[in-house]
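Justification of resources, computational component.

The compute hours requested in this renewal are based largely on the per-chain cost of generating structure records like the one below. Each record pairs the submitted sequence with a full structure-token output. That output is archived, and it is also reused by downstream analysis tasks.
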Amino acid sequence: METSSLLDKCSYLDPRFRVDYLVDKNRSLREIEYEAVSIAAKPDSSFDATVDEEDLPPPKKPKGLSTILKKTFKDRRQKASEVPLSDRQKVEEEMSRYQSLPPVNPEDDPLLWWKDEAHRLPILAGLARKYLSACGTSVASERLFSKAGYIVSDLRARLSPDSVNKLVFLARNMP
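The structure output for this chain reads:
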């Protein structure tokens, strides 16, 4: 069940497939939505596409009374028309926008596609980064090769491949 859920999430976040190969579409979409909402709700989320006010250059000082009045009325109208969206609404809107995008060529790289679309779909891009990226390390295999190197040394160079396999297996699985 856990593997199926993981595969469904990966399939949904791959822009070449989206909902085409989901085993349980409703369950998968609910899980993805739940995880995306939890990411969007974090105030320090690296997936947030909003710009901090500190990063913006200081505003230019208005010249004249008419400029000041225009700005005041514009700000009032803007504040009245702005209704903040909840995190769930943001995620639902982003998911519907993602599903309505045109199909992607099966030969395209999904990670490059997400890199290009991250500005439009920041929350889902973060999930795609999480689920579609390859593991950055190969520690387990490196440790196994290291143990094999200790077993097959200059003094034990005449071990048969079968004996080496057995010794590496024992070295890996014995406490």
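Residues 139-173 form one domain. Confidence is low (pLDDT under 50) at residues 45-56.
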